[in-house]
Amino acid sequence: MFKWALWHEKGDAVKDILSPNGRVKCVFELKNSQISYHVYRDEKLIIKPSRLGFMICGEEPLTNGLKLVRSQTKKHEEIIEMPWGEDRYINNNYNEMAFYLAENKEEKRIFTIRFRVFDDGVAFRYEIPPQPKFQRITIKDELTEFNVDQNSIAWQIPAYQPDRYEYNYEKCSVFEITGSVHTPLTMHTPTGYYLSIHEAALYNYGSMTIRINSSNVLQSDITPLSDGTKAHLLLPFLSPWRLIMVADSAIGLTTNRVMYALNDPPAGDFSWVKTLKFIGIWWAMFVGEWTWAPGERHGATTEHALQYIDAAVRLGISGLLIEGWNDGWEGNWLENGINNKFTTTTEDFNMEKVARYARDNNIEIVGHHETVGFVDNYENQLEAAYNYYVLNGIHYIKSGYAGNMMTINGRKEYHHSQLGVNHYQKTVELAARKRICLDIHEPIKGTGIERTWPNILTREGARGQEYEGGALSPSHACNLPYTRLLAGGMDYTNGILDITNSVKRMATTVTRQLAYFVTIYSGMTMAADRPFIYEEKFKDLYKFIKDVPTNFEKTVPLAGEIGEYYIVARKDRDGDDWYVGGVTSETPRRVLINLDFLDEGVFLAEIYCDSNDAHFRGNPFGHQISSKHVGRGESLDIYMAPGGGFAIRLSKQK
Ligand code: NOJ
Ligand code: CA
Prior knowledge:
Elements: E1 13-18, E2 24-31, E3 34-41, E4 44-51, E5 54-56, E6 66-76, E7 79-81, E8 89-91, E9 94-103, E10 110-118, E11 121-128, E12 136-142, E13 145-146, E14 153-156, E15 170-173, E16 185-188, E17 194-200, E18 208-212, E19 218-222, E20 231-234, E21 237-238, E22 241-247, H1 250-253, H2 258-261, E23 276-281, H3 283-286, H4 302-315, E24 319-322, H5 333-336, H6 351-360, E25 364-370, H7 375-391, E26 396-400, E27 406-408, E28 411-413, H8 418-433, E29 437-440, E30 456-459, H9 476-479, H10 510-519, E31 524-526, H11 531-537, H12 539-547, E32 552-561, E33 565-572, E34 578-584, E35 589-594, E36 603-610, E37 623-630, E38 635-640, E39 645-652
Parallel strand pairs: 23-24, 23-31, 24-25, 25-26, 26-29, 29-30
Antiparallel strand pairs: 1-2, 2-3, 3-4, 5-12, 6-9, 7-8, 9-10, 10-11, 11-21, 11-22, 12-20, 13-19, 14-15, 14-16, 16-17, 17-22, 18-19, 27-28, 32-33, 33-34, 34-39, 35-38, 36-37, 36-39
Helix pairs in contact: 4-6, 4-11, 7-8
The structure holds 1-deoxynojirimycin (NOJ) and calcium ion.
């Protein structure tokens, strides 16, 4: 992988790397033996000169005293086919330049920085080969800067907090950012561009958060290990890609796929992976009807499971999540998670019987593993736990890591530290070997590795609808497409139609719950309410939940502004139909949806939208269902109530 030309003397260097269409330019500079980069969009500086390099424990920093040994350019053009997701095809077109650097001081250590410049982003990574006196290193700090205009507006959630990624986005100026914040970090520059800083292909390293450094510049802050260092590495080291997504508009940012392009092709045959829609023995626990723990109101009993399987069949939905079936939920499960057993059931749950009944009825069980962050306990059982599911014909797992910290090797570690990252990866790779698909709750953020490991069908990893009942405002789902969802799909636990439930009062209208199936992509998508709500109360609305697919051919973002609204159209991967979803903040909106994205022909539009008097507070059930024939060149005039939203199915007429 590492080819080294003979080292020879060179002085300062400035190298331009242009994107294929020339609109993005990245400049790498070696000046006074120090390295930096900066980025232009249409000749406007969007990232000012920014430092690169590392602080390494017990060693000189790897950032200055450098010479350019040689540089190497490459042009790459490729169309990638994704096995499932929002778009079947994504472009991987870039110009690459690799800079082979060597120290001009005593040690003469060598490393490479590789840049890839896309029409909609810039990415670079560090590559450190093993060298005679440089084999095992410990990263003290990564010095990568992202020198954006301090007056840019940022949408951020804080890092190193007890609830991990599960926070509401806050809008502020970059100079107002305090502490470290998570990526994707989305920003609007004073020159009118939209940027999002993120990373791709995060393996064996701490997750990158971002903070303002002492020079008042945004800098990478790698999630530390409990020993205070950032990562222990055996060289060679290929760092995760540092990624700056670039767009002219907020809505244009939402389909940025550079993160996936930066990841490797699938690590084997994943033709067995199938996206899934499922119901769950789940929301009944949130609204206080059932409990996870055994007892009178235990949710995961054999009887309930069989009833839910029957309901899934009647509802035409393919999967069923069952939480609380295993030993370990008694008492305060958040504190007692160390006792969780993943191969033994509570007395009132017969796994073999439930699994057999599910198989006989063609229903996929989504097995559950709540680790409560006790990784040692989980890893001790991991192989047996997966085998137990496989033996019972279960090929989907929702895993969870509730709790502030993980326990790894007996120590408290951040979920997003190098050790946490490695744990998640272990589960992904073992699951792939066992042909298990994953939906990871309290995960490590998505960095596009599902291109390589397509069995990661989704993650929760953001504040989801479990926070309804007071902690979710209508703007949250209008922030997600521009922020968190740039990191991949999310299990938002959609479709909760019992809006006025006294325990969990939803801050949405009822048709907005349908919109989520389109606006929030997820390879495993939950219709989260209890089956009787769909079967008895909202049969007409449920039709959309049943119809909407979980795998799309193409995604066309239509309109939106961060935190305000978002409208998107997606075409079914396995058919000719299109689906449109839209959500708004507390501000009502009338939108004209231009149907030019449609293919030729006549389509039947089934429209589920807010009534004119709907309101997420006063009248959340106010809605209208209508249908009409439409085609390209026409448009639909749709009203979104405060906290509302709509869903449309456009089915091609033969
Ligand atoms: C906390 C999660 O947020 C929730 O979704 C899950 O059901 C419980 N843990 C139990 O695993
Ligand atoms: Ca959670």
